[in-house]
Write a structure and sequence with these properties.
218 residues; Jelly Rolls; alpha+beta; Arc Repressor Mutant, subunit A; 23% strand; four-stranded antiparallel beta sheet
């Protein structure tokens, strides 16, 4: 399966534009924990996920991480090719949360086709708008939603993605996703355990009462 299966406006491109993108694309395999992109100065290219899972996050001046969004099968990471977007500098790091197979399209070639194809330019703007919506949703959650609700929602989302209520995840990793110190995560998880929502063990959070967590999210 090539990149034509992932770019919805492929049929609207000319033969020359398709050839440019095909010649500039490479299939790569990234190991779990590998850094694909690191900061606005690193113009990796457009990443199209075939299988696996990527995490896009930003880091504060104090070194605290917060997950902006995840990239799953068929998702496209545009900010890893931020050099194709004029006046946009986005300090974003992308890592592989699972072993991931992806296409990477060289940014120079993608930008070249964008200049000649209104369809690809509009498609790119739609992707960008969607990602900015994700970030704005996150900001709204951080500002207005209490941490217990955010944590409960995170645990349920993780269980849904992994297909299990036994989450192999550390308190530090949860904190990195949510932008909170490990100590804050630990205190709230212990509260959840006291309430009978979860069971904690080393490196594991087991969801005991998903209904109660869902009620808490409301």
């Amino acid at each position: 399966m090539g990149i034509s299966e992932y770019i919805s406006v492929w049929d609207a491109l000319t033969d020359d534009e398709r050839r440019i993108l095909l010649a500039a694309s490479k299939e790569k395999i990234f190991q779990k924990g590998e850094i694909l992109h690191n900061g606005s100065a690193d113009c990796t290219g457009l990443i199209i996920v075939q299988s696996g899972q990527l995490r896009a996050f930003t880091v504060s001046a104090e070194g605290r991480e917060i997950t902006l969004y995840r990239l799953l099968e068929r998702d496209i990471c545009l900010f890893s090719a931020s050099c194709i977007m004029n006046s946009i500098q986005f300090e974003l790091t992308v890592t592989a949360e699972k072993d991931t197979r992806a296409f990477v399209i060289a940014p120079e070639a993608y930008k070249r086709v964008m200049r000649t194809s209104a369809a690809l330019a509009n498609y790119t703007n739609e992707i960008m708008a969607g990602r900015f919506s994700d970030v704005m949703w996150l900001i709204d959650q951080v500002i207005w939603k209490s941490f217990d609700k955010r944590l409960a929602e995170f645990l349920l989302n993780e269980a849904n993605m992994d297909g299990t209520h036994i989450l192999r995840i550390t308190h530090e990793t949860i904190g990195n996703h949510l932008g909170n110190p490990r100590e804050v995560v630990t205190r709230m998880l212990r509260h959840f355990q006291d309430e009978g929502y979860v069971k904690l063990s080393r490196g594991t959070v087991e969801i005991i009462d998903p209904q109660a967590l869902a009620e808490l999210c409301r």
